[in-house]
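hi! just following up on the protien thing from before. the input was this:
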Amino acid sequence: MGPGPSDVSLRVLEALSRPTIGHLDPRFVEMMEEVKGMLQYAFQTKNAMTMPVSAPGSAGMESCFANLVEAGDKVIVCQNGVFGGRMKENVIRCGAEAIMVEDEWGTVVDPAKVKEALEANPDASILAFVHAETSTGAQSDAATLCKLAQDHGCLSIVDAVTSLGGTPVKVDEWGADAIYSGTQKCLSCVPGLSPVSFSDRALEVIRNRKSPVQSWFLDLNLVMGYWGSGAQRTYHHTAPVNSLYALHESLRILQEEGLENAWARHEKNHLALKAGLEAMGIGFIVKEGDCLPQLNAVTVPEGVDEAAVRKALLEDFNLEIGAGLGALAGKVWRIGLMGHASNQKNVMLCLSALEAVLGQMKAPITKGVALDAAMAVYA
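and the predicted 3d structure came back as:
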């Protein structure tokens, strides 16, 4: 129950163990088409260039920036946590200028600040932001931010690493131009793949670059030959065959449940966990309405050694929760409710285990109320 990787179902693990076949085998190519179609469903898009990058979410991020940003470009980057900072690093390494729009950690990206930055920089070509900030549990308004980008003639790059499959991601409705995610969060697949989707507008920019993409491996002009439409594939790299089996199965599971049902499940379990923690006296750093259901950043009670709590939870209850990152290190716990791990059993285990450990440490909490508060939500 940390910030990822999440638990992987037995169905996905079984798929991972199937016999390896060639990455150009006709049966594998057939499966690739199915993966693309199911990713389009997950992203809620008709974008033809929707596929998994053969590397983790960080490579999906780099794929977006390396392909769309050229030296000398001006990119507006929103930062309200750790991962906006990584976007900035990508911009700099592409030789472009990053115009930063900064918000306090634990808050969402402020559209008014973004609008101000876009108006002050009419020559900016891209707006980049994190939809679901994994370091804080804040969920920004992607629809509004993408609309601002469109209104000012910019492309948008969206980090949906933690949101895909767990909370509404609607690429076509938002008008997002480039979006990336990871398989190890709400898709509950093994780590190592990064689903991405690019709009036709973004692909036009990539095809008409003034300079070659600085990464050969991530150059979409080359990758499109392998992940493009039709049965014919141009060899680009040896795809991670078994990992793609696993992704195929995890996407089947998502389809079987239904996106709306998956979103509702994550929301219900979040509300139950929130009720239990708050009854205990543990607060959230993100205000109500801005919380990311699948990643709950909560304050460590006064005088408590947060690392010792995490150690006890892992050793005594086989339960993992995450530590704070960056400015929040030592101040918060990050409790994940992602994909296969987002269920009532885990919520109740987390609350009871946390109460037991904190009680033993004489922490200033209210005992005996958390489980009832959570059950009231489920009732």
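The mean pLDDT is 96.
The radius of gyration is 21 Å.
cheers
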